[in-house]
Amino acid sequence: MKKLTLLVISLVGFWANAQIRVGIESNSQYYLDDDKIKLDPNEADKRFRSNNYIKLDYAIKNFEFGLQGEGYYPKAILNYNPQLQDFNVGTIFARYKNFEKGIDITAGHIYEQFGSGLALRFWEDRALGINNALFGGRVKLNMGDAAQIKLLGGKQRVGMGFDFSGGLVYGADVEIDIANLLSKENYTLKFGSSFVGRYEDITNLSNDVNNPDKFKDVPKTTDVFGSRIDYSGQRFNLNVEYLYKTKDVHVESSDIQQDILRSGNAFLINSGYNTGDFAINVNLRRLENFTFHSQRNMQGNVFNYGMINFVPSLTKQYDHSLQNIYVYQAQPQMVYYVMNKEKQGEIGGQFDMFYEAAKGSFFGGKTGASFAVNGSYWAGLKNNISRETVKGEFGEDIEKVKMDADLLAFGKKYYSDFAIEYRKPFSEKLNTIFSYLNQYHNSDFITEKPYQVKAHTVAAEGTYFLSETKSVRLELQHQWADQERKNWAGGTVEYVPSSKWSFFIHDIYNYGSDKENEKLHYYSAGSAFSKGATRIAASYGRQRGGMMCVGGVCRFVPESAGFSLNITTNF
Amino acid sequence: MKIFRLLCFLVLTVSTSVSAQSKLPNVTLKDINGKSVNVSQYNRSDKPVIVSFWATWCGPCIKELKAIKEVYGKWQKELGVELVAVSIDDARTKNRVKPQVSGADWKYTILLDENSELKRAMNVINVPYTVILYKGEVKFKHSNYTPGIENKIYEELKSLTKK
Prior knowledge:
The complex is a heterodimer. Chain A is mostly beta strands. Chain A contains three helices and 30 strands. The longest helix of chain A has 15 residues. The radius of gyration of chain A is 26 Å and the shape is globular. Chain B has a single domain, classed as Glutaredoxin, CATH 3.40.30. Chain B has five helices and seven strands. In chain B, strand 3, helix 2 and strand 4 form a beta-alpha-beta unit. At the A-B interface, helix 1, strand 1, strand 2, strand 16 and strand 17 of A face helix 1, helix 2, helix 3, helix 4 and strand 7 of B.
């Protein structure tokens, strides 16, 4: 008994220095059929669906242990990766971190990013159903503040925690802080270099009995090398990054094209200038054959699993629902065998401008105002295509396509946008935001629909304070579009009686569609309650189908109707 | 009896550990100029520190930070508070952080949590998410934006510092 008491006391002592953190998230849907929107009969066996996450982290001195349990029960919410099912371990890790000595060692599931992520990014986004953590080991070493070295290797999670893809991924990244070495205080200058490799041997995997050596020349390893330089001064900043991917076979519609062996590259420039109340930023990027997956034939999968690198679309992510119908998705991939839709990558850029007009100034008026202006232009690379016909093994004609691309030539236009946003408080009690957005979306190339869309969207919103923490918000939107489902109108009313509660009603109406059955209201109403770190939100209504995008990565969400309940908390 | 004692100890254990968890974790992020900042250093501050998670694409976050901007000078003078605005923008939108901050003339400390390391460590799910840290302990958490929340934060700050 004494022994036991001692043991428990020592455990308490042990725990007293420790920290436990718990995070819980639960997202549930109950799908209903109404008179217009019905659940796909193939999915109708489970009308209630729920995605649940519980994350436990325990830290003691320099050690940390973490576990994330995930439950998709009875089934994951519509259009999540079907490999996400039942209850299982999502991620698990042990870590030793000594900040003073600059040592950080992790074993288990790892999240990481090299540079801007164009070479490697392991991350989680539950709303998108992405968790591509690497299961393996990582060492990070800090040499003072002047240099950081990262080394890692392992297998990539593609379903639940222990469902891995075929390839082995390993990498290294070094970042040197030159300004720190030179003891410069008024600017930072950093140089970084990364290497990421994938080992996947498919040379013996030909299932073609007539051609068992089909894949004998497919490289076993594919590597990405990159370098970057970041300068940040008082007013001006500049980042330049260049990456090169070694030769690999082309994959089209999950088929390995062993005859097409090409390298890839990426070039990224970001530059900004700011004074106290005015700032501008310009981003330029060129990508050629720059997808990178931990298993070759996972390229192009709609659930976004197996990605090693992160290639976001460099366009603004807008606030209002009608502004998010025609979204751009980055086009780093190649297409050879779709006539007139050949692709080798993308080229383009975006800019952003922010201006704060002070109170009393010409643009600011009595209460001040803020302006934000942004735009982007993206196109395919200009394709130089040649075709030749060769004889197949039975004497049939087979057309072979050969392509290359010029360095700075623009091909087919994919997307452009231009937007202005104006925020103006009219008094202590009334805040307003007005915006205009112009978009061109080449759906033919981006979403494989046979048209190009031009759309204009306006939105106005006002928040009126009834007391210090009680307010009403009204938002109105309209979109004119010349294709797809054409014109839309929408509105939201939100009432916030206190900092704990909010209630909303939202509707977007596709009144302009040519098809009678598409002239739908997508209405919803709901409420959210938050207290401390807990937030509970419930709503009922319809959801428009389409691409749901976060950080430039998109998940297709089908049209649906029903109830939803989201609960998040931590302690 | 043994079991009862054990249970008592377990309850004690859990409660000590739960109370001990209310600090900022040991995570190093870069600030807007690329300098490394270990977030746990704020546990040693004897002034209140507001940590606010936000993103350039999050409309409510921008509203919250713009609203606090109007009163931030007063808060700093009166209560010595520091606001640490942690941007969770990733590679897609992180280049918008600097012009947004500078264009809006925010005088906050801006940290970049580009791959959600601090967000994950603190179990933050949605932005905006705001905590107030005072003398090494998290005293207040709020997990979304409602108009006028700055008044509530100000009240909390005043009651914490007893002013």
